[in-house]
Write a structure and sequence with these properties.
The complex is a heterodimer. By secondary structure, chain A is mostly helical. Chain A has 26 helices and five strands. The C terminus of chain A is likely disordered. In chain B, strands 1, 2, 3, 4, 5, 6, 7, 8, 9 and 10 form a ten-stranded mixed sheet that branches. In chain B, strands 12, 14, 15, 17, 18 and 19 form a six-stranded mixed sheet that branches. The chains are: A mainly alpha, B alpha+beta. Chains A and B meet through helix 18 and helix 19 of A and helix 8 and helix 12 of B.
């Protein structure tokens, strides 16, 4: 992009041959630089102000002016205008150019629906993504409030755009990442161009923690704006990971046991990544495992800072960087200790953590186009031997396989026994084993045991939508509405398109007298099931009401139901 | 007023008509039903009543509608009277008004004005009259009710006695028909002489039948000549055959002759005429029966309705055909799959009425594929020249072209069904009450059904293994696995069933205390569950593997189809005429359906694979990507456009994709099982290595032992010959004596178990005798040793029999007989033992011929042999360990390894006793066992076509049923002349000699040949 700007500046000199004699030439150049700096600092209101000054200095058809007008229009979400302006600026239409970006973004977003809250505008593909709207806006407003509290910053200059794209291909079109890069890194959301871009959870085979992801990207936006885009990646990621759970409570809740387990192993092996190696970028580390370790380490750096000095330290570091300090210096200034000491304390802090005893399977985001199982209608009594591929302990996998054979023949008691054998061997390590075991127990009405298994699994795989849904069923059967609500909302945070979640929540809200929320879930249920509102009401009332035969999997067999698969936890963006 | 009159009249009439119709209907129904019942007693009376019913109905309706109507409202006066009656307030005023109105036209005797005023007043009053009050509806209602009542009553009557009524109805109708048919015609001719002239094709001679009643019976086309005499004088006469008139010749006024050709069945009659044109008499209809020329009857006697054949095989058809008048051609008609038309092969021509023949059908010329079905039948035509040849066919039979893939698929399906039952059985055990801590005896008893189904499952599994063993092209590993599982699982199920009985008996007898049998039962079921789990998983893997193989086969078949298509297109390219193009197009169509079928089966097969590691989706994608059908569409399109090069290029593209798929399948096959059984695969590899090393080591030790033995033998040889000669005759005599005695034993004198030692003793005595003949005292001693052991055993059985007969108190003669036999056998045994001892005495004590150094060497070898025995035990242990993971080895394999170990131990013992000769013998036996074991292992794994990776396959023990021949091979029954060994047999012997002799028998064989050439 910088090359483009240089060329444009050159063209400015040439195209203003006559005008160049004018004394305003130098002023115009300075002004152009100011616009660019503002844009690079993610300060769009400033960029617009500087541009207005520039417009007074330059003839309106001059290419550099058009270019920056186009850039600002693009950052402000005026894509059609941006395309016209960038075309007028003679920008080449090639991959990676602003013109191509603006065009593709315009084409993708043009038929999107929109919804607004106090500080956000949410653009989403028409259809079932409509379900996301209330939850997404609530999440965003919540993290907005929380970050204002923690860091004292709120984005200036109007509402923040949040754009939902249908899939990874679209994400690659609206961002500067290639599809290949997105596939390799598992990027699911990006914060760039003064907006948040997220992939719809419908594109991800096992869903993902999309609400945490929205919050995560918003942290990036705030940190970038606050620091004028001077925070290095390691710190950026540490902050975003640490603060992403603030929309739902305290910071630091989003660290997954699998990442902790990995970090634990590296601690044990004494193979932590030293700070020097994280420079210039974590992404340049030799292996994905190294990168994951580094991310976990920087998370604990922020954790340490927060634990010892509170939010003040975070603010000071960001502001220090904004003021031009190097990252080490900024940390030293905020902590009042030499960086080496900080690093020592930080590593000691890491080593103090309680790590899971064994290595857990890595959570991965699997895009639907890469998923083995593409069957959309498998929620019912799906029999899936492939679920146990992840189980590396052979005897356990064999028992689980036998359990599945029994379940295939509807021999639930026998299935439960086989799953129990598998579960005994691997404990809560695998969601697939735990969930199948719990389902069998539920069918046998051994609800207490099933709950125990599911809760165990959630400790290791927090946020797993299928586990949460199964737990929700048990709690709903017991009419423990507040807890059931919590379970279903946790499921929704990863798999918002499972109709069961909304139907169940509708019943729960009804039971708790939350009428406004009933309306919301009813609307979502109508969208996802394709049923008439009155039918949805009936289904919701009947859902898990009867005593007998109601705990079987797949009881909610509705038209157009979304796939049900064990969850995977997060892997976030590959940058900002 | 006029209006009132008209309205009242019309309404009254309407009411009366309705009343009449209702009552008339009621009358009709009553009479109709009554008539039916009356007809039971008197059909004619009933019939008349039924006929009368509609008449009476109509009369009743008419009486009301016409007669009563005229009487009540026939004119104005009657109408006025009616109004007066019904409306008392009008009284006779209406009548008066009518009369006044009539008189107004004449000279009325009263004041016209007054009359006019009266009339006007009446008009006003009439206008206020409601017609409904004048015309009474009550009677109409009554009539309606009456009809309703009648209908109800009749419905009840018919409901109760409807069947009788129907009988009566039928009788009435029958009597009516009889009346219609009452008109009869009397015979007007005397006896009729008929002469039949049959059609030529029937081959029948003309036939004259005198004195008939005129009934004609002849095949179609027969000319029938009639001769008869009329009962009166006639001028002219005619014959009316099925409505067609034919003239008759009249002689002497009464002799009638004529003829007609029998074409259709029906009747004919005579008609006589006098001088006039009107017939004077018509004779009765006489039957004309035209015998149908039946189509030929064809039967295919052999082969069976559906048989399986190999491509190019010859099939002998045995058929018979017959026809009532003659056959005019026989052909074999068949249709191959995809052929548009049937093909005919003329069978030996037959002109007779009956044909019974055979035809050898060479199918080599037909282009058929494995799995194709050829339908065929024999067709015969008769010689009917009148109506044209008629066709008769045998039932349609089917030849199924043998398809190895199809057989394997069926075997797989059967095995999979059993596997499914195993899963069910496991579920039953897991859900059963046997492992409960607190057992409920009633529930435990009810679980006996699971034992029964388990035993049935095991039996079926064994049965299937045997059945599949008799077929060809069935994966051997599947058979072995089934056999192994049935063996091991069978033991577990039987143990469970037995202990359940013990538990239940103990419970019953000990009043609730099970003395620990319940716990033991739980443990046994647990063991059974472990066995089942292991077997299910392994068999499932094996089935998946087979399916993968089937997929590979299908992929190969697809590739072959594609090659064939390419060849055809090449042909067309070289010879681009319309006909070849049509052939190519037809081939494309045929291949399309074949490929479709294959793809469908591939898809089914793929879905059946449960292996979580097989990337079924990727495979599906691969198949989808290939989209063979659309590729074929493209090829067809290109061919239609005449673009042969492009069509070939398209096929080439397809070929590359198919190769890729095949490679993918091959890789999957190679790696198969590695994921599920890595530990087993590793142990298996280790076992194979150790087996190999043990065999090599055994070979080395045996070779060294042999050297020592040969050395000792050499030294002993001359001495042995000298001493042996002295006792040779005596030994031979003893042997002869015993042999003779053994020969005289009747089979029923001893129990069946004794037959084996008897046979063995006889055989070994014979061996010993032969060895003595050639002065081979070593061999004679070995044989005598074995003969002595067998003789002792035999003697023991004799004693046993004697004891049993005494114990059971059998008749005296039986007891005497068995006592005598026991005595004889004991004597024989002693005699053989003496001979053996004498022979053994020839030999110096083991080791006595050896020097100190040799002795030491032998001692060292004995130690090595001992360690080999330990190795064999180790191998057995490894087998047991692997058995815990998968049913790789059956009981037989285990026994085989035990035997090897035993032989090794025996060898070590002999060698420690310095008996190099016997030690070597045992070593040879152990070595032979090892080699055999290795060979079986090798064969089993080679079946897997693997490259040393993947799923270890079960070890086959060559336990296939039958003689290893293809069950469909012909068995040649030798004729009486075939007393000489056939040439092939002699060739086989020579070939076998070229292959060499197993080491264990080398010495014996060598000596045998030496004896032969003496």
């Amino acid at each position: 992009m910088t090359r483009v700007v240089s060329i444009l500046l050159l063209s400015l000199c040439l195209s203003t041959g006559v005008w160049a004699q004018d004394s305003g030439k130098a002023e115009a150049k300075t002004q152009l630089s100011k616009v660019e700096t503002a844009l690079d600092s993610w300060d769009i209101p400033a960029a617009r102000r500087e541009l207005q000054t520039l417009e007074e200095l330059l003839p309106e058809d001059i290419e550099p002016l058009k270019y920056f007008q186009g850039r600002v229009a693009f950052e402000e979400g005026r894509y059609t205008e941006a395309v016209e302006l960038l075309q007028a600026a003679n920008i080449e239409d090639k991959p990676g150019s602003y013109l191509r970006l603006a065009k593709e973004t315009r084409d993708i977003v043009k038929s999107h629906a929109r919804a607004e809250s106090e500080h956000f505008i949410f653009f989403y593909p028409k259809g079932k993504d409509e379900v996301l709207v209330p939850y997404a806006l609530e999440t965003l407003e919540s993290i907005h409030r929380a970050l204002y509290e923690d860091l004292g910053h709120k984005p200036p200059g109007g509402k923040i755009r949040v754009e939902v794209v249908n899939n990874a291909r679209e994400l690659s079109k609206v961002s500067t990442l290639t599809y290949q890069q997105i596939q390799t890194t598992g990027t699911i959301a990006i914060c760039k161009f003064n907006k948040l871009m997220v992939t719809s959870p419908k594109a991800v085979a096992r869903g993902y923690d999309w609400q945490d992801t929205l919050a995560h990207e918003y942290v990036h936006l705030v940190v970038s704006q606050m620091s004028r885009n001077t925070v290095p990646i390691w710190l950026h990621e540490g902050l975003a990971k640490f603060l992403e759970s603030r929309w739902r409570g305290k910071p630091g809740l989003a660290m997954t046991p699998s990442t902790l387990a990995l970090l634990g192993r590296r601690v044990k092996q004494d193979k932590l990544i030293p700070f020097e190696k994280m420079h210039p970028s974590i992404a340049m580390l030799p292996t994905a495992e190294d990168a994951a370790t580094a991310f976990a380490e920087v998370y604990f750096a922020i954790h340490y800072l927060h634990e010892t000095l509170g939010n003040k330290a975070l603010r000071e570091i960001i502001l220090g960087l904004r003021d031009g300090k190097q990252d080490r210096k900024a940390v030293e200034a905020a902590t009042g200790m030499p960086f080496a000491q900080f690093e020592k304390n930080w590593l000691a802090h890491i080593k103090q953590q309680q790590f899971p005893k064994e290595l857990l399977p890595r959570d991965e985001v699997v895009l639907k186009e890469n998923a083995k199982d593409k069957d959309e209608k498998k929620k019912g009594r799906e029999i899936s031997f492939g679920d146990f591929v992840e189980v590396t302990e052979l005897p356990a996998r064999k028992f689980a396989h036998l359990g599945e054979l029994m379940r295939e023949r509807n021999r639930i008691k026998a299935a439960a026994e086989e799953y129990a054998k598998a579960h005994k061997l691997v404990g809560d390590k695998y969601e697939s084993v735990s969930n199948k075991y719990a389902l069998a127990l539920m069918e046998l009405k051994r609800l207490d045991e099933a709950e125990q298994v599911l809760r165990g699994s959630l400790r290791v795989h927090p946020g797993s939508p299928s586990t949460s849904v199964h737990l929700g069923r048990i709690l709903l059967l017991r009419k423990d509405f507040p807890k059931a609500k919590q379970a279903y909302l946790e499921a929704l945070a990863a798999d918002p398109f499972d109709p069961e979640i909304h139907v169940a929540l509708m019943r729960i809200h009804g039971a708790l007298g939350e009428t406004a929320l009933v309306t919301r879930t009813k609307a979502a249920s109508v969208v996802l099931t394709g049923l008439e509102p009155e039918d949805v009401e009936r289904v919701s009332k009947d859902f898990l009401q009867e005593e007998s035969g109601q705990v079987k999997e797949g009881q909610l067999e509705l038209e157009g139901t979304a796939p049900k698969a064990p969850a995977a936890a997060p892997s976030k963006d590959g940058g900002r | 007023m006029e209006g009132l009159l008209t309205t009242v009249r019309a309404r009254q009439r309407r009411h009366l008509w309705l009343q009449g119709v209702l009552l008339g209907t009621a009358a009709l129904l009553v009479l109709g039903v009554a008539g039916g019942f009356l007809a039971l007693a008197s059909p004619s009376l009933g019939r008349w009543v039924m006929w009368l019913a509609p008449v009476v109905g109509a009369l009743v309706a008419g009486a009301f509608g016409v007669w009563l109507s005229l009487r009540t409202v026939g004119d104005d006066l009657r109408t006025a009277r009616l109004i007066g009656e019904r409306r008392p307030e009008l009284s006779l005023d209406v009548l008066a008004a009518v009369e006044l109105a009539r008189e107004r036209s004449g000279q009325p005797p009263h004041s016209a004005d007054l009359a006019e005023a009266f009339l006007q007043q009446m008009d006003v009053r009439a206008g206020q009259v409601d017609v409904g009050t004048v015309v009474d509806r009550t009677r109409l209602k009554h009539a309606g009710l009456a009809l309703g009542g009648v209908v109800l009553v009749l419905a009840v009557v018919l409901g109760l006695w409807g069947a009788q009524w129907r009988v009566g109805w039928s009788k009435a109708l029958e009597s009516a028909r009889r009346i219609g048919a009452a008109e009869t015609r009397e015979p007007i001719t005397g006896d009729i002489e008929l002469t039949y002239r049959y059609p030529a094709y029937t081959g029948l001679e003309p036939r004259t039948v005198p004195g008939t009643n005129g009934e004609v019976s002849a095949p179609a086309g027969t000319e029938v000549q009639l001769k008869t005499r009329s009962d009166r004088e006639v001028e002219r006469a005619e014959l009316v055959v099925n409505g067609e008139t034919l003239p008759l010749t009249v002689n002497d006024k009464r002799e009638l002759t004529g003829s007609f050709v029998a074409k259709k069945p029906g009747t004919y009659h005579f008609v006589f005429y006098g001088a006039g044109r009107k017939a004077i008499a018509t004779g009765p209809d006489l039957p004309l029966n035209v015998e149908v020329d039946a189509p030929p009857q064809v039967n295919l006697l052999t082969p069976a309705a559906e048989i399986e054949i190999d491509p190019g095989q010859k099939v002998t058809l045995k058929y018979e055909a017959n026809d009532d008048y003659g056959l005019n051609g026989l052909s074999l008609v068949f249709r191959t799959p995809g052929a548009k038309e049937e093909t005919r092969i003329a069978l030996p021509r037959a002109d007779s009425r009956r044909e019974r023949n055979t035809f050898t059908w060479d199918l080599g010329t037909l282009k058929v594929q494995p799995g194709d079905r050829i339908s065929y039948y024999v067709e015969a035509k008769d010689n009917d020249a009148v109506e044209g040849p008629k066709r008769g066919v045998s039932r349609t039979q089917v030849l199924r072209v043998y398809s190895a893939a199809e057989h394997a698929r069926q075997a797989l399906e059967k095995a999979e069904a059993l596997w499914g039952r195993m899963v069910d059985h496991l579920a039953d055990r897991l859900e059963g009450p046997d492992r409960d801590r607190m057992k409920d005896p009633a529930k435990v008893a009810s679980a006996q059904t699971v034992d029964t189904t388990g035993l049935a499952l095991v039996a079926d599994m064994r049965g299937l293994a045997q059945q599949l063993g008799r077929e060809r092209d069935i994966p051997g590993e599947l058979i072995t696995a089934l056999a192994n599982i049935s063996e091991t699982l069978g033991q577990k199920v039987r143990a469970t069933a037995d202990l359940r009985r013990v538990y239940l008996r103990t419970q019953q007898r000990r009043g609730g205390d099970d003395f620990g049998t319940g716990t033991r039962l739980g443990a046994l079921v647990e063991e059974e569950i472990v066995e089942l789990e292991k077997d299910i998983l392994y068999l499932e893997s094996l089935l998946d593997r087979q399916k993968l193989e089937a997929l590979q086969e299908m992929a190969k078949q697809l590739a072959a189809e594609r090659r064939e298509l390419a060849r055809l297109i090449e042909d067309y390219k070289n010879n681009p005429d319309e006909q070849t193009r049509d052939q190519v197009m037809q081939q494309i169509q045929e291949m399309r359906s074949r490929i479709e079928e294959l793809m469908k089966r591939m898809s089914e097969m793929r879905q059946g694979i449960r292996d979580e590691h097989l990337n079924a989706e990727a495979l599906q994608e691969m198949m989808k990507d290939q989209d063979m059908q659309s590729a074929l569409d493209d090829v067809e399109k290109l061919m239609r456009e005449g673009k042969t090069d492009e069509a070939l290029a398209k096929l080439q593209e397809l070929s590359m994709q198919m190769d890729e798929m095949l490679n993918g399948l091959n890789d999957a096959q190679d790696e198969f099982g590695n994921e599920q059984y890595p530990e087993l695969a590793q142990k298996f590899g280790q076992f194979m290595d150790e087996l190999q090393k043990t065999a090599q080591e055994q070979q080395r030790v045996a070779d060294e032992t042999k050297k020592l033995r040969d050395e000792a033998r050499k030294q002993n040889k001359d001495r042995l010959a000298e001493r042996g000669k002295a006792m040779k005759d005596e030994l031979q005599r003893q042997i002869d004596q015993v042999q003779k005695d053994y020969k005289s034993i009747q089979p029923d004198e001893l129990n069946s178990r004794a037959s084996r030692p008897l046979e063995e003793a006889q055989a070994e005595l014979e061996n010993a005798k032969n060895a003595l003949k050639v002065d081979d005292y070593d061999l004679a001693a070995e044989s005598m040793q074995r003969a002595s052991e067998a003789a002792q055993q035999l003697s023991m059985y004799g004693e046993q029999q004697k004891a049993l007969d005494e114990m059971y108190g059998n008749p005296d003669d039986i007891r005497e007989q068995s006592a005598r036999l026991a005595e004889r056998l004991e004597k024989d045994s002693k005699q053989v033992d003496d001979a053996n001892r004498n022979l053994q005495s020839l030999f110096p004590p083991p080791g006595s011929q050896m020097g100190q150094q040799e002795k030491q060497q032998l001692q060292q070898l004995a130690q090595q042999q001992q360690s080999l025995e330990q190795k064999a035990k180790g191998l057995r242990q490894q087998m047991q360990d692997m058995e815990q993971m998968a049913p790789l080895f059956g009981q037989e394999a285990g026994d085989q390894m035990d035997e090897i170990g035993r032989r090794m131990g025996e060898a070590a013992q002999r060698m420690e006793g310095k008996d190099a000769n016997r030690g070597y013998g045992e070593q040879q036996a152990a070595l032979e066992g090892l080699k055999q074991f290795q060979q079986q292992m090798k064969e089993s794994q080679q079946r897997g076509k693997g490259k040393g990776k993947g799923l270890p396959l079960p070890m086959g023990m060559g336990r296939r049923e039958g003689n290893g021949r293809d069950p469909r091979d012909k068995v040649e029954i030798p004729d009486e002349e075939a007393y000489q060994a056939p040439k092939e047999f002699r060739k086989d012997l020579l070939d076998a000699m070229k292959e060499g002799t197993p080491e264990k028998y080398q010495d014996q064989v060598k000596r045998y040949y030496e004896e032969l050439v003496k």
